[in-house]
Specification:
The complex is a heterodimer of chains A (about 240) and B (about 240). Chain A has about 240 residues and is mainly α. Chain A has a single domain, classed as MetI-like (MetI-like fold, Orthogonal Bundle). Chain A has ten helices and no strands. Chain A is globular and about 70 Å long. Chain B has a six-stranded mixed sheet with strand order 6-7-8-3-9-10, sandwiched between helices. A four-stranded antiparallel sheet of chain B has the order 2-1-4-5. In chain B, helix 4 packs across helix 5 and helix 5 packs parallel to helix 6. The chains are: A mainly alpha (about 240), B alpha/beta (about 240). At the A-B interface, helix 5 and helix 6 of A face helix 2, strand 6 and helix 3 of B.
């Protein structure tokens, strides 16, 4: 039986003494997930907004598909991205497998549907409310997209944070495409899995505590934004 | 500038306007011409087609058949750009009071200095000077409706449609809205307003369009329609009877 108290104490010392290995892993995790979420937002928000305001054949099908993709198993996403990036895959020539870029791509595949689906939902409800007024002001459907995105900004930040929560907690997909290589692609979740199996609980616990701290901070931000939005009457969804 | 040169507002004409849904006739207007200088009030019970007619006049709803023309021309982008509408429940952008006005002024192509100047004028016109930086969504009902009217007027429309703008307001807030409407009318803006408030029609209207069951039952000078109505429906409605 291991001495958990000693492991906890060691974990705390790793956090508070600024252990370089631990903080390098945290930094890489944040870098990968923040970049994945930002790029996903650039793609997912306009797609979600366009689905909310545009009317075309197959739109309903696309919405169902996008909602279904939100629940896509991460290991399957990891496998698909692996096949795309592997040497014999269509993007093999880019030599991205086992790099942080591959992990960003895998996280993007998981996060884009979340951001796009939440954006569509928020923007569609807002568009319903604004529709007659914007038409009265002479704003076309296309021109209404930036107006709606801006006016739904607080709800959309919530969507971004939800995407970030998914990305930072991801393990299955990133371990497949990243390979969990020390100092290269080792992030918090994959390190926790590895170090736990090796019995190095101190590092795993320290990373786990930081991950929980990030999750709480993200949720606190979501709640604070929702409260502010409600107080200012800016929230719609 | 409209403020300096009040002019006769453009004429609005309706011919053979018809809308039906699931076999029920919602609107059936053979002919209507709005060409007088003062405010036109569309009066009638709920479900009489008042708001539907207003939306057709503004081009928000396309009729099954029939046509709306402005100065003899069909409602196109140019004609619609000269119109503005205020809804029963004001739809304000989730921005500050001044940003709501700035949104319209930017679309007019005004530069920053002119926009700032115009926003100051408009806020003074609506008595909202001290609310400029406040979130528009936090305004009271009366203030929100005043802002909606100011935003509509920001585009300097020839015609302003108002759909029961005071139906949820108290007498004080109603009075402020009515004053704004009369001031806009005196500057040459054609006012077409829906109401079911007979007192409001008496206070504001130059002419009255009386509706029932999707049809116009009477149209004429306000005094004549209110004091000596010709149709039975008008007489019953004005007498305070339950017209359904």
């Amino acid at each position: 039986m291991q001495n958990f108290a000693a492991e906890f104490s060691h974990a705390l010392s790793l956090i508070f003494t600024g252990d370089s290995e631990l903080w390098a892993i945290v930094l890489l995790s944040l870098k990968v997930s923040v970049l994945a979420v930002l790029i996903s937002a650039v793609i997912g928000m306009p797609v979600g907004a366009a689905l909310a305001v545009a009317r075309f054949p197959g739109r309903r099908m696309m919405i169902i598909l996008m909602n279904a993709l939100m629940g896509f198993p991460p290991v399957v996403v990891g496998l698909l991205v692996y096949l795309m990036l592997s040497r014999s895959g269509p993007l093999g020539v880019l030599e991205l497998l086992y790099t942080p870029t591959a992990m960003i791509i895998a996280q993007m595949v998981l996060v884009i549907p979340i951001i796009a689906a939440l954006t569509r939902q928020v923007v569609e409800m807002l568009a319903e409310e604004y529709s007659e007024q914007l038409r009265s002001l002479g704003v076309s459907r296309l021109a209404s997209v930036p107006v709606l995105l801006w006016d739904a900004r607080l709800a959309l930040v919530t969507a971004l944070l939800a995407g970030f929560g998914r990305a930072i907690a991801e393990v299955g997909a990133v371990i497949i495409v990243g390979g969990n290589i020390n100092h290269v692609t080792r992030v918090m979740t994959t390190t926790i899995a590895l170090e736990t199996s090796k019995g190095n609980l101190a590092l795993a616990l320290a990373l786990g505590a930081i991950l929980i701290g990030i999750a709480i901070a993200v949720n606190a931000m979501v709640s604070a934004l929702a409260l502010r939005a409600e107080q200012e009457g800016l929230r719609h969804a | 500038m409209r403020d300096l040169l009040p002019e006769m507002p453009s004429a609005l004409d309706v011919k053979d306007l018809h809308i039906s849904r699931k076999g029920k006739v919602l609107l059936d207007v053979c002919s209507l011409s709005l060409d007088g200088p003062g405010p036109t009030l569309i009066l009638g019970p709920n479900g009489s087609g008042k708001s539907l007619l207003l939306r057709c006049l503004h081009g928000l709803i396309s009729p099954d058949r029939g046509e709306v023309t402005q100065d003899g021309l069909p409602l196109g982008a140019e004609q619609k750009a000269n119109q503005a509408m205020v809804f029963q429940n004001p739809v304000l952008l989730r921005r500050s009071v001044s940003a709501n006005l700035d949104f319209v002024l930017k679309r007019q192509g005004l530069n920053r200095i002119l926009r700032k100047q115009r926003i100051t004028e408009l806020l003074a016109e609506g008595g909202l000077e001290d609310k400029a930086r406040q979130s528009a969504r936090s305004l009271s009902g009366g203030e929100a409706q005043r802002l909606a009217i100011l935003r509509a007027l920001a585009s300097e429309p020839e015609t302003l449609f108002l759909d029961e703008p005071t139906s949820a307001l108290d007498p004080g807030a109603t009075q402020m809205i009515e004053r704004m409407v009369l001031r806009a009318s005196s500057r040459g803006v054609r006012i077409v307003m829906v109401t079911h408030d007979i007192g409001q029609a008496r206070r504001l209207a130059a002419d009255i369009v009386m509706m029932q069951g999707g049809q116009i039952v009477e149209h004429g000078a306000a005094k004549k329609v209110l004091d000596a109505p010709e149709s039975d429906a008008s007489r019953r409605y004005l007498a305070g009877g339950l017209v359904v």
